Amino acid sequence: xxxxxxxxxxxxxxxxxxxxxxxxxxxxxxxxxxxxxxxxxxxxxxxxxxxxxxxxxxxxxxxxxxxxxxxxxxxxxxxxxxxxxxxxxxxxxxxxxxxxxxxxxxxxxxxxxxxxxxxxxxxxxxxxxxxxxxxxxxxxxxxxxxxxxxxxxxxxxxxxxxxxxxxxxxxxxxxxxxxxxxxxxxxxxxxxxxxxxxxxxxxxxxxxxxxxxxxxxxxxxxxxxxxxxxxxxxxxxxxxxxxxxxxxxxxxxxxxxxxxxxxxxxxxxxxxxxxxxxxxxxxxxxxxxxxxxxxxxxxxxxxxxxxxxxxxxxxxxxxxxxxxxxxxxxxxxxxxxxxxxxxxx
Length: 345
What we know:
It is an enzyme of class 2 (transferase). By secondary structure, the chain is an alpha+beta fold. The protein has helices at 16-24, 28-31, 39-57, 63-75, 80-85, 106-121, 125-129, 136-153, 155-163, 168-196, 253-269, 274-289, 323-333; strands at residues 4-7, 12-15, 90-91, 103-104, 204-209, 214-221, 224-231, 242-249, 312-313, 320-321. The chain folds into 3 domains: 4-183, no CATH class; 197-296, Roll (Ubiquitin Conjugating Enzyme); 311-345. β6 (214-221) and β7 (224-231) form a beta hairpin. It is globular and about 65 Å long. It starts with a strand and ends in a 12-residue tail after the last helix.
């Protein structure tokens, strides 16, 4: 339901949801050209603050949350982060192979503290409330809090933006900034969520090694077992998480590779906590044991982004596909045939 409020001066009905989406989808190419305290920029930042605050309140596995995340992933340009970092002036030497902390200018230090605080408190509304009168320092703090909430709630979204940066000096500065101010509290939160998670399965367990930035998922049933290690980078979530198999017992090489690939896909594509990605991956291989067939395109039962099941069946070969995978196949192959039997779909 769309909530409507009557503007008595203009006699127009304002559709709040449409207004919010218009700001979230505001062309970043135009926003980048505006002054740092321009009204459009302020409105867009506030819209993002409201959206992220709403996402934070939703249950991780709720359909509402998944729909919002899908909307952001599909409709919104990650280049909003370019606008955010216009408010966080960073100085850094060119990469030299050594990890050095980025040099912060005064307003950037306020932004850094706001980023860290948003991650720790899971809130950024205080920076919206203290925005007026609007000034560059207030906008820098709001920008910092937005970045903190984005890497907490939208790690894949932020990583997509970061990996496409062409300016190596800027990339190095942002990585250093994130590693110094944002990643430590974020990693601690990730480890705590994993440790506190209840997976309700005596055959499956998860342990955490905080000092090594590692999470170990262990599955053991009768004469079979596998240990998969998730290694998080010190600048998480800007760099990819690595997943490795350290122990295997009674499981074929094909299944080992498939489970390793599926866990890697879930933790790398997850816009949310690692704990939720592990839970989704566990559900994925449980459905495999139940006899549910995987999607022949992505080789996963649950889609790595929207967690849907393969439901679209070919009338000829009867194989079922994820809707998103099939759409991508049609788009990239310029065909409308079944990926397996080539019969028109």
